[in-house]
């Protein structure tokens, strides 16, 4: 393994001594110590080979807290006969068409979600979920006969398939019933109407076919089929479907999260799978990259108040002018991106270095060297910022994952063209890197804008704390108030463990499913085979990270083992999410059904 070469980085003192002019006794000792250290280090390498997590320092083997992309093997349930029977069923063309028909029918019930809805029970636009619930009952009779169905905040759905052993923590599978709206003026750009759910033999068309009715239907079909084939779980399976994920899940998943916390308590689930990243090729190797973290978010508001008055005798700068200069300053001084070893994106890079043949040599060297060298880590950050290709929607890699981003998305001020504005504000949407925190963003803004507020003779309040007060002795010309605009600031999600039994069951399941059905659309497979391209049956696990948020933000208390993973590959999700011509490839969909089926069986008997 060539990363042994890079151990030199660890021996700076020995290198320093080499250049010492006098080879004293001390030098002899130092040399001996260096040799011992090196031997010890290599031994550590043997004791802690790459396939084991390297985070625990033992015998003085203080390797950096980095797991070099540990992989576990494919995992099949002990009842392989049942698994094979299920797989056979999923390959049956009649069953395939039935599955496509179910997904299409779910798309035909529009469940578009908009900003600014009133409370459930008051605003009747929530009622559309009634039709969806009723349809589910008819479409999945076995699930509805066997599972306990509960509704939370009227439209949230929780299904419980009670296991025979109540001492085992449940498996929790989640998704959302709502979809993003279709812009009416784009209707005519759709190959098949957005709520047609039309199946043309290859694709199921329509809004939600991928996000997230595809996920929800794959879970339901997997459960229905497991039931029909006589599977009896030891471990309880919980299904939880929110209804306003596309507007932050404050009424749906938030209520479900509270309900489950009250019912089961903290840390009560073995594993939670929600929508999220998928699997894809990166630089010559296949990866499944469950999102093990999520960026945080804050909408920071900069509000400037100044004296009003008639604009015939104006000051040199009005409140709008002052606000503009503050906004300019924020844009000119973003929080510097930084790659840290605890960022799951860093782990993704380690995996790419381990398995991707097409990664440039220089990058591979940097990625490996960065395990121990901070200098290499910094250079790697630069490389990832500027040279790494951006990845694909289901498997994002690249700059945004190591940056706290900012976008000035709202500005408001003034009421009349001949009156000085008394109030002006701007809202900056920040997506907070897992290496940063809300406090980092808030401190950054306060430190950046504090001196400027003083220059403008403004009192200042920063996120609830007085930075500089107005007083009778030193009156101010106005005020600057920084705040969390909607009170919805969200810390980056806790990073889920990427070693141990839970991660291995997930990885082992994905490997089994991928080897059996890689989800590639038939037309693309034909083209690949004709051009002589090899189609691999191997897939690696890589910890991924989400740059957006899912409903899982409301489930943090239920388990540390949260994975945002939809078993989708880019070739199988047509044009992507939230777009015109959203469409789900049938092979991709069937692979997702296999994934949930295999996962349920594997998790049932795993020691978690
Ligand atoms: C499945 O559906 C497609 C598209 O409607 C159709 O062409 C095909 O004949 C169907 N196959 C079966 C087995 O029903
Ligand atoms: C700040 O503004 C107040 C009110 O206009 C004024 O009285 C005061 O002198 C100003 N202070 C400075 C340092 O400009
Ligand atoms: Zn979604």
TrEMBL record:
UniProt keyword Zinc-finger, yes or no: no
Binding-site positions, Zn(2+) 2: 176, 211, 274
Transmembrane segments: 29-48
GO MF term (any one): metallocarboxypeptidase activity
Alphabetic keyword roster: Carboxypeptidase, Hydrolase, Membrane, Metal-binding, Protease, Transmembrane, Transmembrane helix, Zinc
Domain Peptidase M20 dimerisation, first and last residues per copy: 292-456
An annotated GO BP: proteolysis involved in protein catabolic process
Cross-referenced InterPro entries: ArgE/DapE_CS, Bact_exopeptidase_dim_dom, Pept_M20_carboxypep, Pept_M20A, Peptidase_M20, Peptidase_M20_dimer
Record flagged with keyword Acetylation: no
Residue numbers binding Zn(2+) 1: 211, 246, 578
Family, similarity comment: Belongs to the peptidase M20A family.
The protein's name in its UniProt record: Carboxypeptidase S
């Amino acid at each position: 393994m060539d990363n042994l070469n890079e151990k030199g980085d660890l021996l700076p003192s020995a290198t320093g001594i080499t250049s010492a002019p006098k080879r004293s006794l001390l030098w002899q000792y130092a040399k001996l110590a260096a040799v011992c250290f090196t031997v010890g280090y290599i031994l550590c390498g043997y004791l802690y080979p790459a396939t084991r997590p390297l985070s625990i320092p033992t015998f003085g083997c203080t390797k950096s807290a980095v797991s070099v992309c540990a992989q576990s093997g494919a995992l099949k349930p002990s009842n392989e006969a049942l698994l094979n029977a299920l797989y056979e069923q999923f390959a049956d063309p009649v069953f395939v068409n039935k599955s496509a028909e179910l997904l299409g029918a779910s798309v035909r019930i529009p469940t578009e979600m908009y900003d600014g809805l009133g409370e459930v029970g008051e605003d009747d636009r929530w009622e559309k979920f009634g039709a969806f619930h009723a349809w589910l009952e008819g479409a999945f009779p076995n699930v509805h006969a066997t599972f306990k169905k509960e509704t939370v905040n009227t439209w949230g759905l929780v299904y419980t398939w009670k296991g025979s052993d109540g001492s085992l923590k449940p498996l929790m599978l989640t998704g959302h019933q709502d979809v993003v709206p279709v812009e009416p003026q784009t209707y005519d750009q759709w190959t098949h109407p957005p709520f047609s759910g039309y199946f043309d033999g290859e694709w199921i068309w329509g809004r939600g076919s991928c996000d997230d009715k595809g996920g929800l239907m794959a879970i339901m079909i997997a459960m229905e089929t497991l039931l029909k084939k006589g599977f009896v779980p030891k471990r309880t399976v919980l299904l939880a479907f929110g209804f306003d994920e596309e507007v932050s899940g404050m009424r749906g998943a938030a209520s479900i999260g509270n309900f489950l916390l009250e019912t089961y308590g903290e840390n009560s689930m073995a594993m939670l799978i929600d929508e999220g990243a998928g699997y894809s090729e990166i630089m010559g190797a296949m990866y499944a990259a469950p999102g093990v973290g999520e960026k945080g978010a804050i909408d920071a508001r900069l509000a400037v108040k100044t004296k009003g008055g008639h604009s015939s005798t104006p000051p040199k700068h009005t409140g709008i002018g002052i606000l503009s200069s503050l906004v300019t300053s924020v844009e000119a001084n973003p929080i510097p991106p930084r790659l840290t070893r605890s960022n799951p994106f860093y782990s993704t890079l380690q995996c790419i270095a381990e398995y991707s043949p097409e990664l440039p040599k220089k990058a591979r060297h940097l990625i490996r060297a960065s395990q121990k060298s901070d200098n290499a880590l910094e250079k790697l950050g630069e490389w990832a910022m500027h040279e790494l290709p951006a990845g694909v929607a289901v498997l994002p890699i690249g700059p945004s994952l190591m940056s706290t981003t900012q976008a000035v998305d709202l500005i408001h001020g003034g009421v009349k063209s001949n009156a000085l504005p008394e109030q002006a504000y701007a809202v900056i949407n920040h997506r907070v890197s897992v290496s940063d925190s809300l406090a980092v963003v808030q401190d950054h803004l306060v430190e950046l804008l504090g001196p400027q507020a003083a220059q403008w003779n403004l009192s200042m309040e920063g996120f609830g704390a007085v930075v500089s007060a107005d007083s009778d002795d030193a009156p101010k010309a106005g005020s600057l108030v920084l705040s969390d605009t909607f009170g919805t600031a969200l810390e980056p999600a806790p990073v889920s463990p990427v070693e141990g039994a839970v991660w291995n069951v997930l990885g082992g399941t994905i490997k089994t499913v991928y080897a059996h059905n890689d989800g590639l659309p038939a037309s693309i497979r034909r083209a690949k085979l004709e051009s002589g391209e090899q189609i691999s049956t191997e897939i690696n696990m890589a910890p991924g990270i989400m740059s957006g948020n899912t409903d899982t933000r409301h489930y943090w208390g239920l388990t540390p083992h949260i994975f945002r993973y939809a078993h989708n590959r880019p070739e199988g999700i047509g044009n992507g999410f939230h777009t015109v011509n959203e469409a789900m490839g049938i092979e991709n969909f069937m692979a997702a059904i296999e994934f949930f089926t295999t996962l349920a069986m594997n998790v049932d008997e795993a020691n978690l």
